[in-house]
Specification:
The complex is a heterodimer of chains A (313) and B (295). Helix content of chain A is 77%, strand content 0%. In chain A, helix 5 packs across helix 8, helix 8 packs across helix 10 and helix 10 runs antiparallel to helix 13. The longest helix of chain A is centred in the middle third of the chain and has 36 residues. Helix content of chain B is 75%, strand content 0%. The model of chain B has no long low-confidence stretch (mean pLDDT 91). Chain B has 12 helices and no strands. Classes of the chains: A mainly alpha (313), B mainly alpha (295).
Chain lengths: 313, 295
């Protein structure tokens, strides 16, 4: 187990190096002189020279990269060029908002996806199976920003049941918080539910066809006990670890969902910084999401080994 | 059994032997979902190609007398906030969506497949390098990386296609590498090596054709993802620029008039949904049809 963990951590080093290189290179894609872009309307050569010195743009690229990495390692992700606030503080402020949304979305995805997957496998070839497959296809094919707009139209404009936009922290007022986040969380969870449904279905089908399930049935156990106690426990292990890997989909989805529902989270931060040409924030957000994704990947691997005795070695 | 009878049996068998391509096409034809998807895709392609002939109005023509009109005999799908015909904009918008879907995947394939082929076939340091870069790219959430790239390159449909293509590339690298690793140990590759074929020839002539089915399935499913990505970038203002029509940007402007003109949001969203659903249906059908394990 320790050897495995050590190997996985060692593998992370080159991956993180390339992640940092990709993010650093993004700035080099800027057309023209970055100092001029940062200066905006200001065309005073003194100011431009000052920006070059401040951001070390007068240094060769490898030197600039080393300084940038040094900053990142010490937790300094730079400063927002527009509002002059450290990028780290901005991210720390927005992260809890997206984390709440993402947690709700994962819960919704697990309930719908795993539930539909189990029903679909147990009732294979029936109308239930067909309906669950249609649901999965719907989830994968629906653009989440369209689903969000349609839900706002139905539940906010037509029925007036839920607020169309805004965010309330759970700690402030849990009822208002749930009302504000249930629609965006459903929109985010929808696509993941579809993926989880397909995986649950195939995992359950494989398990239901295995010898130990046949033995459990032969012992005369009730079908309900066979499915809930014997089949589901083994089939769901890979599915739940897979849910952790859907973080990338969640964060990508959050960009548009937060924009539509005006939620001041991580996704809205990246879009706002893109439009304000606040490139340090864009770089910081991409770096944090990539690192979080890699960390969750590692945790999912470890969790998979912990719950699967055959892999412990 | 005499010689004539044996000959007759052999003749019958030869007549009934089906090539893998024919078998796959037959299986695909038997899948109703895939065929339905194919029909819808062909319909959208035809609409996009014949847009100037079939669109009822000029997609950019504004009419202040027809601002936000609901669907009617004059404007089948209604009009938008400046009186433009929504049906005409959806028909012309199909061009941007399909073009972005196809071109970005062509970009991803033309970079990803050679890189994956080289990494999987040659192995060693090159494989390690390509795999780590792929891991790093896959660690950055797809849309966030595409948004960042599109933002740094500048907003336009062309740059959106590049951004989507680049962010989709690691999927093709990983798939190609995995497929090559599985195929390169097969006996026919060993035989090709034994008779002295150069490495490039083995990779291109013997390995590549055998991994094409998997690539074809992935390409079809990736076009669906790319169409959603283009619509997302256009929705955010990073793709097709106004006044050129695109389904994503139509949804963006529809958001502001949801209470007074909901049809502005319904139709472009439905167009994206139908196209993406069709590519997903076709992709699923192709996967089943090309699966050698399926009977």
């Amino acid at each position: 187990m320790l050897t495995f963990l050590g190997n996985r951590l060692l593998q992370l080093i080159p991956t993180l190096f390339f992640v940092s290189l990709i993010i650093f290179c993004l700035q080099q894609l800027l057309p023209g002189d970055p100092a001029l872009v940062m200066a905006g309307e200001e065309r005073d050569p003194e100011v431009i020279a000052q920006i070059r010195r401040q951001y070390r743009l007068d240094q060769p690229l490898p030197v600039q990269y080393v300084y940038w990495v040094k900053g990142v390692v010490t937790g300094d992700l730079g400063e927002s060029m527009r509002i002059k606030v450290p990028v780290r503080d901005l991210i720390l402020e927005k992260l809890p908002v997206t984390a709440q949304l993402a947690t709700m979305a994962i819960v919704i995805a697990l309930v719908i996806g795993v539930g539909a997957g189990i029903i679909s496998a147990v009732k294979k070839g029936t109308l239930w199976d067909y309906a669950a497959n249609v649901l999965a296809l719907w989830g994968i094919s629906t653009p989440n920003f369209w689903l969000g707009i349609m839900l706002i139209f139905l539940f906010s404009v037509k029925l007036g049941w839920l607020p169309a936009s805004g965010f309330v922290h759970l700690s402030q007022d849990w009822r208002a918080s749930l009302a504000a986040t249930i629609m965006p969380a459903f929109v985010l969870g929808n696509a993941i539910a579809a993926v989880l449904m397909r995986h649950t279905r195939s995992a359950m089908l494989a398990v239901l066809d295995s010898d130990y399930v046949r033995t459990a049935r032969a012992k005369g156990l009730r079908e309900r006990t066979v499915i809930l106690k014997h089949a589901m426990r083994n089939a769901l292990t890979p599915v739940i670890t897979l849910a952790a890997l859907e973080l990338g989909t969640l964060l990508s989805g959050a960009v548009l969902t937060e924009q539509i529902f005006s939620i001041p989270g991580f996704g809205k931060l990246i879009v706002d910084s893109v439009f304000n040409r606040d490139y340090a924030v864009v770089q910081g957000v991409v770096l944090v999401t990539a690192t979080t994704y890699l960390a969750l990947n590692l945790l999912a691997d470890v969790a998979y080994i912990l719950v699967n005795p055959r892999l412990r070695g | 059994m005499d010689a004539a009878a044996v000959g007759s049996v052999a003749f019958d068998v030869a007549e009934h032997v089906e090539t893998p391509t024919r078998r796959a096409l037959r299986r695909l034809r038997n899948r109703q979902g895939a065929m339905l998807g194919l029909v819808v895709i062909v319909a959208f392609i035809l609409l996009a190609l014949l847009a100037p002939l079939v669109a009822p109005y000029d997609p950019a023509a504004q009419s202040w007398a027809a601002v936000r009109k609901p669907p009617s005999a004059l404007h089948w799908l209604g009009t938008d906030e400046v009186g433009r015909d929504i049906l005409a904009r959806i028909i012309f918008g199909a061009r941007a969506s399909l073009l972005a879907g196809v071109i970005s995947i062509v970009i991803a394939i033309s970079v990803g497949v050679p890189a994956g082929l080289a990494a999987g076939f040659l192995g060693g340091f090159l494989d390690g390098l390509v795999s780590r870069i792929t891991d790093a790219m896959l660690a950055c959430p797809f849309l966030i990386l595409a948004i960042a790239l599109a933002a740094f390159l500048g907003p336009s449909l062309g740059n959106a296609m590049i951004a989507i293509g680049v962010t989709t590339t690691p999927i093709f690298v990983r798939l190609t590498r995995g497929q090559v690793m599985a195929v390169k140990v097969e006996d026919y590759v060993e035989a090709a090596r034994a008779i002295g074929n150069p490495r490039w020839r083995i990779a291109i002539v013997h390995i590549l054709p055998n991994i094409l089915p998997a690539l074809l399935v992935q390409a079809t499913l990736s076009i669906a993802t790319a169409i959603i990505a283009e619509a997302s970038l256009s929705f955010l203002g990073l793709g097709q620029q106004p006044p050129a029509p695109s389904w994503g940007s139509m949804l963006n402007s529809a958001q502001r008039f949801l209470s007074t003109a909901p049809w502005m949001a319904v139709w472009p969203g439905l167009a994206i949904f139908l196209t993406v659903l069709s590519f997903n249906l076709l992709g699923d059908g192709l996967r089943d049809a090309l699966d050698p394990r399926a009977r």
